[in-house]
Amino acid sequence: MNAHEIYSVEQQDYDRAGSASAAIKLLLRQKGIDKGIIRRVAIAAYEAEINLIIHSEGGKMELTIDDDMITLEVYDRGPGISDVMLAQMEGFSTACDVARNMGFGAGMGLPNIRRNADDFVMASRPSIGTLMVMNFYLKPQDDADKRRMGI
Prior knowledge:
The protein contains six helices and five strands. It is α+β, with helices and mostly antiparallel strands. The protein has one domain (3-149): 2-Layer Sandwich (Heat Shock Protein 90). It has a five-stranded antiparallel beta sheet, with helices on one face. β4 (119-125) and β5 form a beta hairpin. The two termini are 22 Å apart. The mean pLDDT is 86.
């Protein structure tokens, strides 16, 4: 079941918004991953992809699938996030008017990523860039995972 794929995402590429996350979703289906896990990964991947398009100078999404876990690493080039905790607050957004007029930038991206990933870590350095790492377990880790997976 192992796989490793890298997807490039360009700054302000609204025409291709969602193409990387759609490719990730398709790959997970082809690998026979549980539909509930696919849904959570797809939501987190889409939100991360949109953040790359709106807020960064471009970046990459790196997907790794192994027997126990799916890992999605998202990293970008500048401008970075000055207050990572504030950026994760529901409704907080620094999206430009162009993004908002297209229906993006409601300030729910990072909260949705955090809600859907089993583990989520984000680090950022102003003028350098941002790294997000999301893990999605393929097997329940505890009772809360079992309830969420319907086991």
